[in-house]
Design goal:
Number of strands: 12
Order of helices and strands: EEEEEEEEEEHEHHE
Oligomer: single chain
Helix content: 25-40%
Structural class: alpha+beta
Number of helices: 3
């Protein structure tokens, strides 16, 4: 959840975001203060000055319980790695999407980093090596599905071929979307990529 309302109608509160990263444990709470990014994450709390943030990564990270999950990772020598997820655990069977609040908070964070003339690295997706390895496996799997479909047709197994083809399309779409959104890249803090910020 995000909060940028006012305390007494005149003074705006610091933009805030909270989510529960695991079923068991406390909420992670983050605020954008004039001094920096304030965090209260489990046993750790503090404030990271905007000019002390060294790297920011935006990524698409679906999980079993939530296929539309986005993640911002922040590195600084003054704090543990901070993660901001667009989903929050509600129950053993449910993760709640917080798309609008997440996008608003992450966008405001980038505005403040840009205003601070941040020298951080702004990256997207997976590290290049992991992306490359994953892409090779993905292409190999696609070729395997095509070979299975052709083989099933050659042996007269029309139903089996149709099943493999449908599974192939589903696999190609879901995994392809994951790799497309997680392609390695860099961006400016004043222009975070829209495809890695969910639409509220």
């Amino acid at each position: 959840m995000a909060d940028d309302a006012t305390d007494d109608g005149d003074v705006p509160r610091d933009p805030a975001y909270a989510y529960k990263p695991a079923l068991i444990g406390a909420h992670w709470q983050l605020r954008l203060t004039p001094a920096g990014l304030a965090y209260d994450v489990g046993r750790h709390s503090g404030v990271v000055r905007y000019d002390r943030i060294r790297r920011v990564r935006l990524a698409f990270r679906p999980v079993t319980m939530q296929s539309q999950r986005y993640l911002t990772e922040i590195w600084s020598p003054d704090a543990p790695k901070l993660q901001i997820a667009s989903c929050s655990w509600r129950s053993i069977m449910e993760q709640e999407r917080q798309d609008a609040a997440y996008t608003a908070f992450v966008s405001e964070l980038h505005k403040r980093l840009a205003a601070a003339n941040s020298q951080a690295l702004f990256q997207t997706g997976l590290p290049a090596i992991l992306f490359g390895l994953g892409a090779v496996v993905y292409v190999a799997a696609l070729l395997g599905f095509v070979a299975l479909s052709i083989r099933a047709l050659q042996t007269g197994e029309t139903a089996a071929s149709a099943f493999v083809f449908i599974f192939f399309l589903l696999f190609a779409w879901q995994v392809g979307t994951y790799f497309y959104r997680n392609r390695p890249g860099a961006y400016r803090p004043d222009a975070p990529p829209a495809y890695l910020l969910p639409k509220g």
